Automatic annotation (TrEMBL):
Renumbered ranges of motif GXGXXG: 9-14
TM spans (from-to): none
Name of the protein in question: Patatin-like phospholipase family protein
Source organism: Larkinella bovis
Pfam families recorded: Patatin
UniProt KW Iron keyword: no
Chain location of the short sequence motif DGA/G per the record: 150-152
Keyword Lipid metabolism belongs to the record: yes
Residue span of motif GXSXG: 36-40
Location of the PNPLA domain: 5-163
């Protein structure tokens, strides 16, 4: 049985992908296709390149990513992300989809043409950065004279990208919604609105996953909680461990 893995966006909460992925690997899962949006594109590309979940966590904890982001002197965003190209080329030196150990599909929003873009061949680093270019925060990212922003604008769970290539789809979604968390700030209003807008377009895709992993505890975190990386990793890992019987049945049926 061929397994495909789909990774959602979610800002810092995407770090939980790593904990979930570690738990899945320990239970015997292996993947022949990967697809990701935004944070899921970053995690997926690094994993497809051969890094382990623990190694990616270490990269996140020890790399000063803020040094590779600069102010944007335009009206299209507050920051520019293009300087991060150098950093990601150090982490992904081949800078090529074809060089990855597992086929990877990166989703971004083509703002110029108003369509979803799926990158899976040629250069790797720039599509990954385009996929996580959050509109309003980052200036749109230019590739071949087209402006790109975060893939979550149109598709935060790109299940259909791998659906015809695998037998079983595992989805990791890191944006659980809960009404229990009170809203007390403009930032909270904006974040809740964004989650609702993205989730409304994601429901059908979540239902297409044969196995959906969505750690409910992630609702305690926001998309900017980068300093809580290890805690986010732990939440994903412990949640996956709690599903061991279910995961074992999936692996047994695949044999």
């Amino acid at each position: 049985m061929k397994f495909g893995l789909v990774l959602s966006g979610g800002g810092a909460r995407g770090i939980a992908h790593l904990g979930v992925l570690k738990g899945l690997l320990e239970e015997g899962f292996g993947f022949s296709q990967l697809a990701g949006t935004s944070a899921g594109a970053i995690v997926g590309a690094l994993f497809a390149n051969g890094y382990t979940p623990d190694e990616i966590l270490e990269i996140i904890e020890t790399t000063p990513f803020y040094r590779h982001i600069r102010p944007a002197f335009t009206r299209m965003g507050l920051l520019r992300i293009d300087r991060a190209e150098e950093l990601y080329r150090q982490l992904l030196p081949h800078d090529s989809f074809e060089a990855l150990r597992i086929p990877m599909h990166v989703v971004a929003t083509n703002l110029t043409d108003g369509v979803l873009a799926v990158f899976d061949s040629g250069e790797l680093v720039r599509p990954v950065l385009a996929s996580c270019c959050l509109p309003g925060i980052f200036e749109p990212y230019m590739i071949n004279k087209r402006q790109y922003v975060d893939g979550a604008v149109l598709n935060n769970m790109p299940v259909e990208v791998v659906a015809d290539k695998v037998d079983f789809i595992v989805g990791i979604h890191c944006n659980p919604f809960t009404t229990q968390k009170p809203i007390t700030s403009i930032k909270g209003v904006l974040e809740r609105s964004l989650v609702l807008a993205v989730r409304s377009k994601t429901k059908e895709r979540l239902a297409q996953c044969h196995l959906l992993l969505e750690p409910p505890e992630l609702s305690r975190f926001d998309v900017f909680d980068w300093r809580r990386a290890r805690e986010l990793f732990r939440v994903g890992y412990q949640y996956t461990q709690s599903l061991k019987p279910q995961l074992a049945r999936v692996i047994e049926s695949a044999l």
